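Researcher: Next sequence.
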Amino acid sequence: MSLTYKNFSRYQPQPMLSRQGTPSLDGSAMAAKWQSFGSARHSRQNHGLRAVRRASRNQDMAASPVTRASLMTTPVDMTSTPQVQSLISYLEHDAAPMIVLDPQYRILAANTAYQRQFGTDGKPYLGHKCFRVSHHYDVPCDQAGEHCPMKRATELKAPDRVLHIHHTPRGPEHVDVELRPIFDERREIVAYVERLATVRHASVRPSAEGLVGRSATFIAALEAVQRVAPSTLPVLLLGESGTGKELFARAVHETSNRASRPFVVVDCSGLTETLFESELFGYERGAFTGAHTRKIGLVETAQGGTLFLDEMGDVSLALQVKLLRLIESGTFRRVGSVETQKADIRLVAATHKPLQDMVADRLFRQDLYYRIAAFPIHLPPLRERLDDIPTLVDSILRRGGCGKHPVSVRPEALVKLQAYDWPGNIRELRNVLERARLFADNGVVRPEHLPDHIIEKRPSHRPPPAGQPGPTASVGDDELRRMAHTTTLTRQALAQRLGISERTLYRRLKSLE
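Model: Next structure:
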């Protein structure tokens, strides 16, 4: 039997839907189907995988130019068998960018979606190492201080997923990478299929809207958003005031299959119990004095979409009972009504308060806590995102311009901003920059335009551990070069001493070469 694309589809795994609704390739299931052709009756059908294996052992495979073919672009010796052509056709019909890799990190094939989104004219990628193409690294990701999905998939012999920053024709972007191994009849990995999805709601570069950042702590929170958004689980955002909880909640909504439906924000602080209930659930005409007409509540307004409960820790115990009923049964009643309404909402809650401590002190219901905390996400404070401050500064100045002349920040002022501890987080940074803008008559923010407590580096909200001199911006290029050449520490230990991530240290050292 010839394994054409038509009958190959019979052996496809059950598709795992992404947020775009496109199927991704299940490597383990596909491997099992490939193994079914390993019997004596079908032994000739294994030539395709052997061809992949031969290609992976070919250390001198030349890079091929980008072409626009009806099938995936791939080296000639890879398309010599109908089995590989069937695999290629399968990937080619996937709307998501996908590539095939050999165990030596080389890109063997890429579908049209990948060529369209990540390909660059004049820059061939076939036969090149994936870490060179995507990251411009000289070594695999794990040796540059990052999570390498291929290493993890090889160790576990299972799929792996990670959020990376890739270089694209549009510049650096956050990319959700899912890598699945392909096995032969002896359970040896002969190739990998990598599926890529650009994160649209977050930017690596300065942006006038949305989330912005590239630090390790920011990427960890963003990766959690990517994982939970396609599900229906309630999400609890935990973090200090000013860490961008509403932006993260909106990112959960925009990444879900409810993105086209309403995103409704409920500020739980500062509302009385009666007002909160009528705002949340609505009321009937005549329910109380002044209720001249029926009013639709915020729960009904969010029908089919996402309801974001900000400052959840401020909700009274009496209202917590009503919220628990809403979450558990998916029903509610308008104030003054006996008719039960059905709620179709995705719940995202946020708080800066320690809810677990409040549960222990009987200030917050335990059953409600476990309902809303199905998937908690910790949002890092700004002092743990010092590498993001230059990008955040540019983004805030863009957003607050309102048609005014562009404003820039002098390097010495930027050093002051990175040395400060930011107890008020991004909200405080925005206020400081808006103030400094008023003093920057020539469009340039200088250290003297900053508040005195920032220039003097106080208050120290949380001092760095002993032996850490502070953020990398305070260490000059010459000093960093000297430390790299004279230290006996490993790169990981040196990064910890400098108070930065190993990836940031690798990039700075690479820029000094």
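Model: The radius of gyration is 27 Å. The CA atoms of residues 382 and 425 lie 5 Å apart.
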